[in-house]
């Protein structure tokens, strides 16, 4: 073997030259048919069974919307208003301590039945009320966390602690993307303030970074630096990307090609070094893919985010003509344009920064939050339906938890993970139905309780993925989004 000619080559052979030990594992992977997936981890993959939905748009109400003021009317609360929690109810311990002895707070909203199905919706959501025949309302949701950081993390990753892959990452890992020129998983917020936990909520945890969500900036220019610098032609930009990729590929080839005799290494040492080398190769390949995607986005992204291409009627449908709905309307319209082009998963944070959190003056807080989200979400549902896209696009609405029937600060409500509402529409979901229920005052889920893991299992099932089969090997264990539980809510599926 030739002597090393540079200091870097010497250090590579002496300290990291065992990367070639990963060659056997990589070749075995290719022999098993994994070459395409390794070279392009975002390549489209077949689902476990026929999918009802191709894409997901998750409208996340950050801060915890009050189910008993929106979709779950409780007449008994009016009769018991001002009284303590009845002795027959177990005393919950909420994030702010025990509120069991604070007076019950009646809803000030007017509920009516809507559509042919007669689903109940409060007057805070008049536009969404017109779409109820396409919606399955799940009134018996429950979660484990009581603080925003933990609960937002669980609703996004299945666990109260950060460090696990997000729901969107699992979807992208399981199915790949149908779009070559845009990220497969996009995150949109309605303000500069991120939700509690920040990018952990759309991260990949122990998975490769390839599957993480791409956060588009709020406002009229969501994709920063998409335009080439002045004076840089497309030909020059292409040449620059090609050169960077050539350097990365050259380094990868050296990493794999500098092999020492296997017989000189212990099996344990071989495995450790092979693992390190494999991770390095995966990291470089992800970087190459990112450069290629960024280059392709420079030509496709400006067209996608240019909402002026939409008709004035469509822009008004989403509320772009009103200052209070413009931010969410822009994001909802952009979400439709993204899934239209094959993006797999789009998450919209509405009220980003826990703005639905109403520990006091719930009426003022929710009136504003509902005003900002009602028309944009309804516009999204109507637009998807008239374009024939609702059947293939699953729309999910919900927050990290609900709110208590007991008052806080006299006119607010505390966090309630014990029973709350979420809903789904399109993408193989039955419209105009309710599933499960909370008790007579809306404190606990009592009929057909649905855990966060069940919500996740159902979303994956609508995408054609079995949550028990969708696994990722980490530290010698096959990990999955739903951990060791979760069941699919078959009753809400068509």
Model description:
- The protein has 494 residues and is of the alpha/beta class.
- The protein folds into two domains: 7-35 and 227-295; 55-226 and 302-492, 3-Layer(aba) Sandwich (Alkaline Phosphatase, subunit A).
- It has twelve helices and 19 strands.
- The strands form six sheets. Strands 1, 6, 7, 8, 9, 10, 13, 14 and 17 form a nine-stranded mixed beta sheet that branches. A two-stranded antiparallel sheet has the order 2-3.
- A hairpin with a 2-residue loop joins strand 2 and strand 3.
- Helix 2 packs parallel to helix 8 (267-305), helix 7 runs antiparallel to helix 8 (267-305) and helix 10 (326-340) packs parallel to helix 11.
- It is globular.
- The protein starts with 6 loop residues before the first helix and ends in a 15-residue tail after the last strand.
- The relative contact order is 0.21.
- The model is unreliable at 16-37 and 258-270 (pLDDT under 50).
Helix content: 25-40%
Structural class: alpha/beta
Question: Quick one: biggest sheet?
Answer: 9 strands, mixed
Query: Roughly what is the average pLDDT, rounded to an integer?
Result: 86
Number of DSSP helices? 12
Task: List the keywords.
12 helices; 16% strand; globular; 494 residues; nine-stranded mixed sheet; Alkaline Phosphatase, subunit A; two-stranded antiparallel sheet; 36% helix; alpha/beta
